[in-house]
Amino acid sequence: MSICLCRGITVAQFCEIIERHCGCPLAVKCAMEMDESCCGRCETSLEDLIREVSACSRDDSSREEEK
Residues near 50 by Cβ (< 8 Å), separated by ≥ 6? Predict the structure, then answer.
């Protein structure tokens, strides 16, 4: 599944970008190379997407710690 159709960024790539940039929306936007040529669909919900992915990552890591 893709997060950004304009740049072809998949969910897995998006997760890596978030990890690399500590979830900072501006840094994530820059890493995704969002500019005027993008349609803006993912940009409008970027902060929500970051929160969702970050929450899933925290849930996954806490489950691993329980094992």
Answer: 18, 23, 25, 28
**Positive or negative: CA dihedral 25, 30, 31, 34:** positive
Domain tally, the chain? 1
pLDDT of residue 65: 54
Count of CA atoms in the C-beta half-sphere (13 A) of 51: 4
- CATH code for the domain of 12: 1.10.10
**Tens digits of residue pLDDT in 45-63:** 889 989 888 777 665 555 5
Strand partners of residue 37: none
Domain that holds residue 9: 2-66
